[in-house]
Amino acid sequence: MRTARALGGGGAALLLALEARRALFGPLTRVTPAESLAGAHGWSPVAVTLLVGAALHAFVFAALPVVVSIDSYVNVWEAPFFEPTEVRSHQAPVYVWLVKACARGDLHARLVALVLAQHAAVVCSAAALAHTVGQITSRPWTGAFVGVLVAGDAQLAVFASSIMHEAFATSILVLAAVALLWTLHLEGWPASMGLLGAGLLAALAALTRQALQLWFLLPIALVFARGPWRPRRSAVAWLLAGAIGPVVAVMAHHYAFRGHFEVTGSAGRNLLYRVIYDMPPLEPTGASPEDPVERARSLVWAKRETAWLGPYDAIRDELGWSDPEIDRFVVRLYLERLREHSLRFARVSAECAWGTLVNVQPPWNLLDFHRFVLLENEFTPAAWRTLPLGERDVPWLEAWSALCAAAAPVVLVLALACPFVVEPRSRPLAALCAGSAVYVALITALAAVPLGRYRLPATPFLLCAAALTLDAGVAAARRRLGSPGA
């Protein structure tokens, strides 16, 4: 029955899409002259980024070939994609597919291959960003500087060795931004295809890391504010088709096979942290202590130290609630906290946003958890326990990470100044970088706590924006000194 409903809905959507195609998906006409980004540099930012990035990431891979956490092996517990089940998906599907593919063969060898692919993705996306920045600013050294900063970020490099989706999703997001920035300089059908491609990359990032599902709103805002095409609705339609189409397809699949129209079933689990994190105790509602809702509130607060799993297990075991019922209950609690403790909620959100943008997780933290998962965690599958423990002490990596952590507040200040100081031709790039960093901070502050790895999708954009601010400062100084190259 669900399959029939999903197919019927899909058919209706297809008919509507065909009807709307002529009105929305037409060719784009520029209203401002196209400024070509094609140019030659005496030395290539791409080459510099690839050489430096490959060397740095090779050293990290040699020290940390494969690092795992609990979030690594739970991917293999997700239900098969085309198997009807009532069990909800709790992970975005793309990385689940990758890890499951690794688990179907020689686990260690395939995880090593996945880690190498993640390192390559980080370096290549940094090179693409370096090339784009060099072309937009017409200063190749600025592009090379951005590329080396991104490829050489310690936390990105360390997480590229981990079996977690952050590094892969971040690389895809950077490529989506690069595709959009190049599209701004096109017209006609190439512009349409560029917007569609940027949207598809945004969707792929969202289906890899669920916190990125609303990032596509930034490109839409940029198209409205700076888009050089008419009709504007066609530009937005092409972008939305790429950004929303694959996500809606996955949601329809989950409704057909699992009974829930959603990408993941993790909304309540994420929001639970903001219900309890640095918030006052849950107040009694006045109902009887035996009332199920009142009892659930008591269990959430009593088990807050073991969230999210502790409250969920306690409510499920004692009250017999299903996951969707617990999710709906947690969402109500979240809205209650937002309504009744607005000022405190806002203060904690601001602290979480700041913490997200400056919190750089040290490598030993990840390595200690890796060892715990392999040696002490009782739920770790046997095949995963055979993975190498790795070196606990890597002094040069710890020093590198400490340097990046010390620079994080400075990088943030420079990045936030970027949209106000760059040259007009760099403003779309600056706006996209600053907006992406703010988006990551807000989505984390409103739905989670500021763990170090949650900063990663913002890291390339923060570094790029900070470099653009420095570039603007250098250009202004050279103009003041009368340098002809300014």
Write structural notes for this entry.
There is one protein chain. By secondary structure, the chain is mainly α. It has two domains: 45-186 and 207-227 and 247-259 and 345-480, no CATH class; 280-340, no CATH class. 69% of the residues lie in helices and 1% in strands. It has 21 helices and two strands. The chain has a two-stranded antiparallel ribbon with strand order 1-2. Helix 8 packs antiparallel against helix 9 and helix 12 packs parallel to helix 15. The radius of gyration is 24 Å and the shape is globular. The relative contact order is 0.13. The mean pLDDT is 88.
* Strand content bin: under 5%
Write down how many β-strands occur, each being a DSSP E stretch of 2 or more residues. 2
Overall residue-averaged pLDDT value: 88
Tally of separate helices: 21
Rounded to the nearest angstrom, the distance between the terminal CA atoms is 67 Å
Series of H and E elements: HEHHHHHHHHHEHHHHHHHHHHH
Q: Residue share in helices? A: 55-70%
Count the domains.
2
Low-pLDDT runs: none
Q: Main β-sheet, in a few words?
A: 2 strands, antiparallel
Give the C-alpha Rg.
24 Å
Outline, from the CA principal axes? globular
Query: Which structural class best describes the helix and strand composition?
Result: mainly alpha
